[in-house]
Fold Calcium-binding protein KIC-like.
Amino acid sequence: MAHNSVEFEDFLPLMAEKLGEEGLMEELCNGFRLLMDPRRKLITFESLKRHAALLGLEGLRDDELRGMLREGDLDGDGALSEMEFCVLMVRLSPELMEQSRPLLDEAFRQAIGGGL
């Protein structure tokens, strides 16, 4: 099975530099809310497909959109929670990933109640 990746310009490091950590997290949360299904409070395939044009992804096939969801779906429920979306966005940015690893580790610990 061939793995298709979506090419994109990595703006997250620039956003982080301009907005700071809190501002970047706020923007990621805004992006999540824009894409999520308002009833489920998750990004579902349907909500991602409906809003793909907002991300410049209107040319992607259904299987490519599903692949994006699978890549970020840590709990296997077929959708992205806010935490999964933020982790995916940072993971897709190699430069930002290095800078934010301690922040992500702390956020993950808080999200799972402090016990690893």
About this structure: Residues 28 and 89 are 8 Å apart (CA to CA).
